[in-house]
Amino acid sequence: MIDIRKVVRSFGFAGQGIVDLFRFENNAKVHGLAAVLVLALGSWLGLSRVEWALLITQIGLVWAAEAVNTALEKLCDHVTPDRHPQIKAIKDMASGAVLILAITAATVGLIILGGHVIDRFF
Predict the structure, then answer these.
(1) Cα angle at 31 between 27 and 33, to 5 degrees?
(2) pTM of the model
(3) For a Cys-Cys bond, which of 6, 51, 58, 70 suits 105, CB 3.0-4.6 Å?
């Protein structure tokens, strides 16, 4: 049997994690601003359902990667506040993963939005 109270409590913890991510993490705020701009431009350009699905998926993936990166950084800082070469490598790789995804998302955005901008103005 599913314990609904546990499920609701889990959603509460997850929601608090999302709030904390956007409240305290500068990079999440930057990604949030980029998402707002993309959504506004997409609305203005009149995207198709598939284009919306692709852009929203990219936005969600970047935010999720940023959350995982932040969690790993906090865990590493908790394990040892001192500088350590392995901790540095872990943090660098995690932030590199976010960068890879952000570049991919920007490329997808440019393909979709750029095509519409070119069609509209040229």
Answers:
(1) 115
(2) 0.90
(3) 58
HSE (side-chain half, CA atoms, 13 Å) at 58: 26
CATH code, 115: 1.10.287.3610
Q: Where are the alpha helices (DSSP H) in the chain?
A: 4-24, 26-45, 49-79, 85-121
Q: Is 51 annotated as a binding residue?
A: no
79-122 pLDDT, tens per residue?
A: 998 999 999 999 999 999 999 999 999 999 999 999 999 999 88
The number of folded domains in the chain is 1
**Would you please indicate which residues are annotated as catalytic (active-site) residues?**
66
Residue written as token pair 């314990």: 3
Rounded to whole angstroms, the Cα distance separating 69 from 77 reads: 12
119 is in an annotated binding site: no
